[in-house]
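__Record contents__

***
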Amino acid sequence: MKFDKLVFIDLETTGANPVSDRITEIGLVEVDAAGHATHWSSLVNPETPIPAFIQSLTGISNEMVRRAPAFAELAEALFARLQGALFIAHNARFDYGFLRNAFSEAGFAFRADVLCTVKLSRKLYPEHNRHNLDSLIARHGLKPDARHRALADADVLWQLWQKLRSDLPPDTLSSALDTLLQRPSLPSHLPSDVLDDCPDTPGIYLFYGENDLPLYVGKSVRLRQRVLSHFNSDHKLYKDMRLSQQLHRIEWRETAGEIGALLLEAQLVKDLQPIHNRTLRRQGDLCAWRLREDARGHTMPILAFASEQDFGIAERLYGLFSSKRKAESALRELAEAHQLCLVQLGLEGRSQPGKPCFGWQLRRCKGVCVGKEAESFHRARLEAALSRMHVKTWPYRGPIGLIEDSGNGKTDVHLVNNWCYLGTAQSEDQVWQLLEEAPHRPAFDIDTYKILSKALQQKTLKVRELRNAS
């Protein structure tokens, strides 16, 4: 892939959010096809105060930018500089996202092929763990004029580029660039820039068809990579081919981590019923086995249904099944493996009192049905056999918040009660609002139960008890 112009670029900003924060400085190095480099930079009036922390980090004060041009005044000339160039930046999504948003507000539709030098370094030097700019400066012997100033950092990237070209075989660098710059073959109904803002963070994505028909809900700890995988497979999977033909719109939602993505995916699949989500879409007539004594004092499993009682607080439940047929099939398999009596389990009728079950005749029953095994022994063996299928009782006295931290400033509080997911909050007000709006008896969901029981068992998230919620 060949470009007539390269632009190494760096921005300083008032913060990390490209929507609410603003650019304070732009620095770029333009390199033409002959290798001639032109340096350009400008302070930018963000038209909003610069936080004290950012002033300390960059050395750019409110006084310095007071008389600088606003971005709108620079937009036309800057747009011309960037046209047709390969946009090269460190953590390129940050700089590219800020510029696209700023250009959009100024009335320009900016789009470019983007190369991230973090990803390039990882691709070329996978044996190293650190690829931040300071690490690259030390590793490659680069010479910055300053740090955290736009032009100086852009020039460091230009130095890095020259170093890579001199140190590496041409084919090695070209191969890495081809891999990093290849664009997916997007479905025909999607705009070419649809994924430009898609983050490579945990979250869920939604595919919609014509008339906004929900097609598919997926989740990943790396959203952009996962979405692209649907289109980079050359349609080796029939499902991906059908999705590509039907796809008209993509939506995504970021989460702080994997647990939030799993919970949100399970909820949205049930709510939206996407036509390509079969595994999570329906749970049928959810049921479980419950041990109960009959009128004669015999302990036997009785089928309980989630539609009739709250599985979130029910005790002595075993197994979660999507139908009566699957529940009975699982119990038969258990009986065969542990030589349990089908008559005693209620799975086989008895033609006359005292007649042995069919399993006794085949030596698959130890004879409780004909008095050869004590009732108490059979009950103990049944409980032991069922123990691995035990549905855990909710271990808290009320709702809890599972706190999931992304590590880069985003924190989600997943509200849960009786194994039911009530929603995710990002603020204290949202916590109590979600609790107040929660239904008296949320629907018990088998997928949510599995996600939450595993998360609590692993103890990877902090737990905040919310017993005093009204």
Q: What stands out?
A: The CA atoms of residues 276 and 342 lie 39 Å apart.
